[in-house]
Amino acid sequence: MKLYDYPGAPNPRRVKIFAAEKDIELELINCDIAKGEHKTKDFLKKNPSGKIPVLELDDGRCISESVAICRYLEEIHPEPNLFGVDAFELAYVESRNRQIELELWTQIGTSWVNGPIVGKLGRFKQIPEAKETSDKNTKNFYERLNNEFSTIQFVAGARYTIADITLLSAIDFATAMVALKPDSTLRHLFRWHKEVSERPSAKV
Length: 204
Hints:
Layout: E1 2-5, H1 10-21, E2 27-30, H2 41-46, E3 54-56, E4 62-64, H3 66-76, H4 87-113, H5 116-121, H6 128-148, H7 162-177, H8 187-197
Parallel strand pairs: 1-2
Antiparallel strand pairs: 1-3, 3-4
């Protein structure tokens, strides 16, 4: 299977970490989004939305969206389980993952689009006030996570799941590319981050 990837992009990294946890080998195909390769006619046949990651199966069929790709990988390689083992856990892991996507990733994304790196590209009209708000919302969510990690080991409870992968990818991207590293006083969040970063899968 081929995974269309770009170094440093957080969503493809989610899939790479997920695959590494399951010891699934993927052929990585560099899709240079800086050059607009994700918007070419050929790529749009693989994903009409013009985004990465895309998983291309051996028969040429393609799956887009990182969580959908991970669900496919979980179906073909059920263990170790990363989405949930029963009705409650499936729903709870999904809810936690969505909270991170909707309440943290969106804010980091707004800060990224309105930040200096994207600004140099000149592709978007930037809104400084939007970045100011999203920066604040991101920091507030970090504080919320720090409080939660004072009583739980992982995002969805006692074991590592897709929700941890989503959060790790978000924080690492925010730290490296958006200047939104969590404050060093958030010791419970840093405990979690250190623990999950030491997993071999996190090195991708």
